[in-house]
Structures are given as C-alpha cells and as structure tokens.
Write a structure and sequence with these properties.
Elements: E1 2-11, E2 14-23, E3 34-40, E4 45-48, H1 50-58, E5 62-63, H2 65-74, H3 76-87
Parallel strand pairs: 1-5
Antiparallel strand pairs: 1-2, 2-3, 3-4
GO cellular component, one term: small ribosomal subunit
Keywords: Chloroplast, Plastid, Ribonucleoprotein, Ribosomal protein
Pfam families: Ribosomal_S16
C-alpha cells in the first residue's frame, strides 16, 4: 500500500519536509517512490505537484493526516472531485 506522507529534511531544529509517495512498510527517511511536494512549517510555505498527487490518490494512495490537511488547504481534493465527475 502506498501513502502520501512527510519526509523530514533540513537541519536540527530547522526542519523542512518533503511530501512523498512511499510504501507503508518503509521508514520515515526510507526510499520514496516519488517526491510530490514540499512543506516548510517555519515559513508556512507549500509547493505541491498537484497532477502527481492526483495520480497517486486515483491509484488508491492514502494521505496521512498532516498531508491531508496541507492538500485540503491547497484545494487538491476539489480538483480530485472535479476530475472524477468528468469521467463518470
């Protein structure tokens, strides 16, 4: 099973996170399938590759709680619902 979750990067006490698609059995800093975004909690900056996120969500990937909240603020799920209505 694939999850969309945060992967910690950066220095000590200055963490930044990559949003990655990763196998559930992998550890937090394990090898990811694809990098789909970036999140900096210090500056509250977010960069998302929306087509890649939609691709993994369409294939059944489950986002973690934090990634779900970040994606929801960026409007990813509204695009997912729009795309599903087009094809149905």
């Amino acid at each position: 099973m694939v999850k969309l979750r945060l992967k910690r990067c950066g220095r000590k006490q200055r963490a930044v996170y990559r949003i990655v698609a990763i196998d559930v059995r992998s550890r937090r800093e394990g090898r990811d399938l694809r990098k789909v975004g970036f999140y900096n909690p210090l500056n509250n900056q977010t960069h998302l590759n929306v087509p890649a996120i939609l691709y993994f969500l369409d294939k059944g990937a489950q986002p973690t709680g934090t990634v779900h909240d970040i994606s929801k603020k960026a409007g990813v799920f509204t695009e997912l619902h729009i795309n599903q209505r087009k094809f149905n």
